[in-house]
Task: inverse folding
């Protein structure tokens, strides 16, 4: 069964880069869903089945931290694996995100290998 | 600290442009002479706040912005002005995040403002004429970096 990925980043370039990288992995993926910020991502989740989320941290409207609070507070979404892709490098902010059970933390710029490894790990080899 | 920042600016711009955008970078103090006066200039800028505050600016022209955008998107097609602006914003975001972590370590928290990119104003162009500017050729295309800490200007002149 094909996997549904949601890419949440305010940069259209980053969304395209992740989408292109996913396309090169050979993983069985449906065309990715996208959102420009956390609030839009919550809307996408309410109307689509999502298996995996790529999430930026610094975004307008609703940032990655607030999105994670909403996501994990909702019974329907609390088990969806989340891979953070961010320029954020501090231990403190990373630790706060990890309190919300993120699956992997990738610092920009990310390599295709890092994305593939994170996806395989997040999906437990199902991909 | 100024020396550490200069070293980190050089290291991060070379690493990120080469590894992410697949563009070869040479530190070239005279790179500005390679700008085409007939082409528009673009500036990408981001501000940061934390134990120190400041601004990181990147100056380039259309050929660099186009090549950067094509490299990031992995395409050979024409790119739109909107895509170029978005690519420059993301590049300045990644450069600044990596520079701050490399300089101040992972135990230091910084807040970055949303990056901006736009056609350069006359005032911004003048800023890049100062000796506090780092100049490079990326795939033979000129770019300049202007990095300012509040109360501390990172002087490039002693580094040449």
Result:
């Amino acid at each position: 069964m094909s996997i549904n990925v949601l890419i949440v980043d305010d940069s259209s370039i980053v969304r395209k880069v992740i989408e292109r990288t996913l396309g090169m992995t050979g993983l069985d993926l449906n065309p990715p869903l996208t959102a420009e910020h956390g609030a839009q991502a919550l809307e996408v989740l309410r109307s689509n089945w999502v298996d995996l989320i790529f999430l930026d941290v610094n975004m307008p409207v609703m940032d990655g931290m607030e999105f994670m609070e909403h996501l994990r507070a909702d019974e329907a979404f609390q088990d969806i694996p989340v891979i953070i892709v961010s320029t954020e490098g501090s231990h403190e902010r990373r630790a706060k995100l990890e309190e919300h059970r993120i699956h992997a933390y990738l610092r920009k710029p990310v390599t295709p290998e890092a994305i593939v490894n994170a996806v395989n790990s997040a999906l437990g080899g199902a991909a | 600290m100024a020396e550490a920042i200069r070293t980190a600016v050089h290291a991060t711009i070379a690493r990120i442009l080469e590894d992410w955008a697949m563009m070869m970078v040479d530190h070239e103090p005279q790179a500005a002479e390679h700008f085409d006066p007939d082409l528009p200039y673009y500036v990408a800028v981001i501000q940061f706040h934390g134990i120190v505050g400041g601004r990181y600016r990147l100056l380039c022209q259309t050929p660099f912005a186009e090549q950067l955008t094509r490299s990031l998107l992995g395409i050979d097609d024409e790119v739109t002005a909107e895509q170029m602006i978005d690519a420059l914003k993301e590049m300045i975001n990644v450069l600044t995040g990596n520079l701050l972590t490399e300089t101040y370590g992972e135990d230091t928290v910084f807040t970055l403002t949303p990056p901006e990119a736009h056609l350069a104003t006359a005032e911004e162009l003048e800023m890049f004429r100062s000796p506090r500017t780092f100049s490079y050729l990326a795939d033979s295309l000129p770019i300049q970096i202007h990095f300012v800490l509040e109360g501390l200007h990172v002087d490039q002149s002693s580094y040449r």
Remarks:
- The beta strands of chain A are 5-8, 33-35, 52-55, 82-86, 104-107.
- Residues 4 and 49 of chain A are 7 Å apart (CA to CA).
- Chain A touches chain B at residues 10-14, 16-17, 20, 58, 60, 86-93, 107-109, 111 (CB under 8 Å).
- Chain A has a mean pLDDT of 90.
